[in-house]
Amino acid sequence: MTEFKTEADLCAAFLAWLPKGWTAYPETGDFDILLSRDDDGFQIGVEAKLRLNPVVVAQVLETDFESIGPDCRAVLVPRGKVVAGMEAICEHLAVTVIKPGSYGGFVPSLPKDDFWHRGSASSWHELCPLRRVPLPDYVPDVAAGVAGPLKLTRWKIGAIKIAVLCERRGFVTRKDFRAIGIDPRRWLDGGWLRKGGAGLVWTGTGPDFKRQHPRVYGEIVADFDAWAPGVDAAGLIVQEARG
User: Fold this and answer.
1) Quick check: 117 pLDDT over 50?
2) pLDDT of res. 135
3) Three-state SS letters, the chain
4) Contact present, 83 and 52 (Cβ < 8 Å)
5) pLDDT, greater one: 3 or 158
């Protein structure tokens, strides 16, 4: 039986096993892993723990029936690390327990889009949320299940776009922030930008977004023409940011 030293190790093994047709968003929507089925957007929120106990079950439960959430909720634990009685409690609480299988992989299998008609509904409990968890525009390039996780938030994606604009153009303006949809005050109050040239220039003291999110940073650079505010030769915005 595989021994997992950390929850991050357990999450990494699960993500390596993840079947085709699913996209994993690590550290998204307050879950260690948020799974989204590619065909229809069906979501599973997963919390990982090295032992199935009341703590992890409490973490994964719905707390506000009017809030957004995934279609199903699950806990990911190593095989043989289950506190007596907890699986039965999870069943009553509509929480699926995912464990390594006896012969490799993980069980139960993830639901197919027609799983209600295939006899596997007993393993999963559809909660019918009012709204699903909003997915970021880019799949986070962060580790799942680590303490104090690095997250790819909506603000972080906007901040990377500002950093890319600074890199490409040499400066940004308040209009760029408005077009991209984030507040410039954090940048100015933190000394990350200063007045210079045609606008605000990078001081080199802010977060290193390229180091934090190398893959996503590269993807945002590659998508530059799709999202960047249009500017004229003087650097003035002639159209709003897209996407």
Assistant:
1) no
2) 96
3) CCCCCCHHHHHHHHHHHCCCCEEEEEEECCEEEEEEECCCCCEEEEEECCCECHHHHHHHCCCCCCCCCCCEEEEECCCCCECCCHHHHHHHCCEEEEEECCCCCEECCCCCCCHHHCCCHHHCCCCCCCCCCCCCCCCCCCCCCCCCCCCCCHHHHHHHHHHHHHHHHCCECHHHHHHHCCCCHHHHHCCCEEEECCEEEECCCCCCHHHHCHHHHHHHHHCHHHHCCEECCCCCEEECCCC
4) yes
5) 158
**How many whole angstroms separate alpha carbon 114 and alpha carbon 120?**
10
| Residues 120-149 pLDDT 10s | 556 899 998 889 999 999 999 999 999 889
Taking alpha carbons only, the member of 230, 171, 232 closest to residue 240 is 230
Task: Supply the pLDDT for residue 235.
Answer: 46
- What's this model's pTM, rounded to 2 decimal places? 0.88
> Distance between CA atoms of 174 and 236, rounded to whole angstroms?
11
CB 182 within 8 A of CB 157: no
Cα 64-66-72 angle, rounded to 5 deg: 70
Strand partners, 52: 82
Residues 6 or more apart in contact with residue 99 via CB below 8 angstroms: 76, 77, 78, 79, 82, 106, 107
Q: Kindly list the structural domains of the chain, giving each domain's residue range(s) and its CATH number in brackets, ordered by start.
A: 7-123 (3.40.1350), 154-239 (no CATH)
Question: What are 55's two structure tokens?
Answer: 């703590």
